[in-house]
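Revision sheet: structure tokens.
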Amino acid sequence: MMNEELIESHRYINVDGDWWYESTLDDWVEVLRGRGLDVASKDILFYGFYSQGDGACFTGNCIDSTAFIREHVDEKDRQAIEVLFNHGGEVYVQVVRGSNRTYSHSRTCYANLSPNTLYQCIDPPADSDGLQATIIAKLDAQIDAEVHAIEMAFTELFRGWMDKIFKDLNEEYDYLTSDEAVWETLVANDMIEPTEGEAA
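Predicted:
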């Protein structure tokens, strides 16, 4: 029979360092890489559990921003961006953290997209007031609008992944601090008398 008093006195024996969550973070580094993001385990932050403001977040960069945008954004919502891509331009996608560093939940991070302009990719027309210049200016304005909409969509996408990371960490924490897990650790480390563990 498990000794409840002994268990309670060692409730956090399985979570008394940073080792208990390392494998979860390492697993998520691989998951995020498979989804197109380069995130180091040290850049996954969390605080918990069971208090207001608890959560997890991460920062990182897209491995291939063009491929990521094409995978996650409908073609009709990236028409001007496709013109940019077709002229050798890029839209760099990052996951960044806001200025408030008090908390580590998903709402503290957001997507940041940094596009080239068509003027950077196309030789500027000699006549800055001509038709070509007008078209380029309108396309650049449309690129900005599309980028803004995609930033909001990607922010929600990334925050969903952050919330899933926190859920996995929370479940691991709950298991490691459960009666069964604590008792198993006590038994494995010879921290109880054999008769305590053998009694029915």
